[in-house]
Write a structure and sequence with these properties.
single chain; alpha/beta; Quinone Oxidoreductase, Chain A, domain 1; Rossmann fold; 2 domains; 7-stranded mixed beta sheet; 10 helices; about 30% strand; globular
Amino acid sequence: MTFRAIRVSKEHGVHGASVVALNDEDLMDGDVTIAVDYSTINYKDGLALTGKAPIIKTFPLVPGIDLAGRVQTSARTDLKPGDAVVVNGWGLGEHHHGGLAQRARVKGEWIVKVPSPLTTHQAMAIGTAGYTAMLAVMALQRGGVAPGQGEVLVTGASGGVGSIAIALLSAFGYRVVASTGRPDESGYLTGLGAGSVIDRNTLSAPGRPLGTERWAGAIDSVGSHTLANVLSQTRYGGTVAACGLAQGLDLPASVAPFILRAVTLAGIDSVRVPIGIRVEAWSQLARHLDLDKLATITSTVGLDQAFDVANRILAGQVRGRTVVDVNA
């Protein structure tokens, strides 16, 4: 029995990606086989599909760092056929076949059951982006950044991480400032819960080692000069959660915010997070994320349309989250 999948190949240095027919013999090792309902297109998936960065380590490979569906077969007692599950990270879409296929086989310890009341579609509307946003919010909370202490900045606000971060922070009672390069998205961002919107150009150029204190905390998905400026403007004892590199991998910053203002820079990794923290993050998403807001930031495409979305997400033309219905 065959199933449809996107497969990325690289032969003689030439990158290629297309929709192909695979069968169960093409699946990789694992003790749980999943009938996939949905995947997503994240920035990382855009890089993998286009070959613009070496995301994929093994060729040929099914890309897609997210998937949600139902257990088809399982060698485990804690995961039974029919269970709704979500998988992200652990090398999915990098060196293990990912979610852009109608079927997947993975290790059971990678799997989180989809918490009620979320559906598999909503789990993928959240995806790695929303799960990362939740991890970042949890980092601010651990760092002692509480509602009422001042403004919390979200950079890259129109993207998937930024959009869900705004909705979550708003639900927790924080006063959110959204930074975006798309001023026409102000209504969208305030609708998610941002109290105000600023132009990303105010943060993206080289700045001073120590700026005027403004942010009680921040969630940054941009990196480079933007992150350096955010750190320099963070108030005494604040925490900045860093989870992206849209502007660049570099961090042209000073140690001044750390040693003069006791600022904490918290790195957010979504790939190798222990299962207990994953379950807590997904549980909090199910409890606190406004599902009506989630619906407003989500669009759904079929498997064949994933290539177009990949190009548009790299060009900064995608707002919010894109779910891929792998069966459409």
